[in-house]
Design a protein that fits this description.
alpha+beta, Dna Ligase, domain 1, three-stranded antiparallel beta sheet, 4 helices
Length: about 110
């Protein structure tokens, strides 16, 4: 087709770019970890970020290690997500601070 390319990011679909967050509980420590004198983690659950194309492999690994997947949530940076709005606010604050410092330097 005209204007389409088989190389680079133009070839990637939305499915290949998506990330998901697994909340996992009940993972057993491995033999190597059991040799340590302290626990790896204290909380009952933890989070793992997984790309869409590795979801099945990661689920199998979690189950082999005795874990239970409590929830799966998509990670998005587009739309009206809270993460995007927080990141935008921080960026705007940093830009404003930089402009204020530059304006103050011009006055000297």
């Amino acid at each position: 087709m005209f204007g389409q390319t088989g190389l680079g990011s133009g070839r990637l679909s939305n499915a290949e770019n998506r990330m998901f967050r697994y909340e996992v509980k009940g993972m057993r420590q491995t033999y190597e970890n059991d040799q340590l004198s302290y626990p790896i983690r204290r909380s009952g659950s933890f989070f793992i970020s997984v790309p869409y194309n590795r979801m099945n492999e990661e689920m199998q690994r979690i189950h082999r290690m005795g874990g239970t997947i409590v929830s799966i949530e998509p990670l998005t940076i587009d739309g009206n997500s809270q993460a995007k709005s927080e990141a935008t606010a921080v960026t705007q604050n940093l830009e404003a601070e930089g402009k204020n410092k530059a304006a103050g330097a011009d006055r000297d």
